Amino acid sequence: MDGGIRENVPWKELKENGVDKVISIVFPKKLKCKENKNIIDVISDSIELMEQELSNYELEGADYLLKINAVNTPLLDTSKIDYFFKRGYEETKKIIREKNLFYN
């Protein structure tokens, strides 16, 4: 289940629907101060800041949290989507094995 504008880390909906264990995968990054060249840059940076703050607030409900570094990847950049999908998939498999999830 993917997050969005209203709920970036949607664990509440899953728990309300009876899910026992929630694994949240986030791609945190340090926001860099930079000079914005136009209004699109300003809007993009504002959305990234809002998304980061909302995600930080919402992380409390996840049973397991995976953080995958997303350095230098703007929010609207889709050029690395395959890379992040594979990283998320591999990290999720790893935590499932390490924590022996879903096998009890």
Order of SSEs = HEHEH
Unreliable stretches: none
Task: Give the percentage of residues in beta strands.
Answer: 5-15%
Distance between the termini: 23 Å
The number of helices is 3
Number of strands: 2
- Structural class, please? mainly alpha
**Helix fraction bin:** 40-55%
Query: What's the arrangement of strands in the largest beta sheet?
Result: 1-2
Mean pLDDT: 77
Taking Cα atoms only, what radius of gyration do you get, to the nearest Å? 15 Å
Largest sheet: 2 strands, parallel
Silhouette: globular
Structural notes for this entry:
The protein is mostly helical. The chain is 43% helix and 8% strand. It has helices at 11-16, 39-58, 81-99; strands at residues 23-26, 64-67. The chain has a two-stranded parallel sheet. The chain starts with 10 loop residues before the first helix and ends in a 5-residue tail after the last helix.
What's the layout of helices and strands?
Layout: H1 11-16, E1 23-26, H2 39-58, E2 64-67, H3 81-99
Summarize the structure.
This protein has three helices and two strands; from the N terminus they run αβαβα. It has 104 residues and is mostly helical.
Please describe the structure with a list of short key phrases separated by commas or semicolons.
104 residues, mainly alpha, two-stranded parallel sheet, 3 helices, 2 strands
